[in-house]
Amino acid sequence: MRKRYTTIKDIAKALNISVATVSRALRDKYDVSAATRESVLEVARQMNYKPNFNATGLVQQSTHNIGVIIPTITNYYFSSVITGIQEVAWESNFNIVLYITNDLPEVEMKIAQNLSGSSLDGILACVAPRENDYPHFEEMIGDGLPVVFFDRVARSVRTSKVMQDDYNGAFTAVEHLIERGYRKIAHITSSKQLLLTENRLSGYYKALEKHDLPAIPELLVHSGFSQQDGERDVARLFDNPGEKPDAIFAVNDRKGIGAIQALKKRGITVGREVGVIGFTNDPISEIISPSLSTIAEPACEIGKTACQLLLKHIRKSNFTPEELTLSCELIVRESTNR
């Protein structure tokens, strides 16, 4: 038998006031006195009252559910982002619903189409690579569903966006390698279709330019984000004719770890012969041997900030979109020690 939960009728009966007064007090309406509101909140606490969001949603056209679209869940960065999102959402009595794209544009599109009639108050999204624009997100926003992008954003869609400082993070990573004495620096990066890729590539080029080093076309490799991609990228760099790198800047730590593993299998001493630096500060970066130098991203803060912006969009339909960029930090470890 299902447990009976406290309702606003129970609170109203206990205080001998109307249900409408209790409802307004719980929603902090202006026409309820401070004393009445405090009494209602105190009795609600004593009676372990929990809001029925299904019922309030019918009246307020709110479900208290936020959708989060991400490429993967088995990843330190995204698990940290979700932690930040969840912390802010729960503080405001919102639930989060996860949707995983596996970095496939067609899956992202299908998720978006299926969400059109679902019960969500807003969407937080980290986009999959696409050759064209993101009409499915444009359609959501056009239908009145707030959307906020984080990390990987759709530049053409006018809404709030939260990113780490990809340009300066990449610049710092490459300049660190140069200061350690490396001169032929490869960049194993991600899809050309992502703004994140473009910004980190721009930082890479700028650091080379500042130190009068050439940008060697053979040392730039585009692929995915996985450890296996990093291993394959190293094979491409060292098996093909042309210049061989003495350092590798990886677009993320997973690829950096793949690069370390591939170099070790080839008998190349990581650090002394070929330096490697990543981008994320995944905990595994400290465990791998040699430990991986990296650029630490504020993943949890990105999640918090993105969720805070989405809640503003939800509560205020004419909220002006904001683009926020959070700083990164250089973490020096063994993989860049000559």
TrEMBL record:
Keywords: DNA-binding, Transcription, Transcription regulation. InterPro entries: HTH_LacI (IPR000843), LacI/GalR-like_sensor (IPR046335), Lambda_DNA-bd_dom_sf (IPR010982), Peripla_BP_I (IPR028082). Residues 6-60 form the HTH lacI-type domain. SUPFAM superfamilies: lambda repressor-like DNA-binding domains, Periplasmic binding protein-like I. GO terms for molecular function: DNA binding. Gene3D superfamilies: 3.40.50.2300, lambda repressor-like DNA-binding domains (1.10.260.40). PROSITE patterns: HTH_LACI_2 (PS50932). This is LacI family DNA-binding transcriptional regulator. It comes from Dyadobacter sandarakinus.
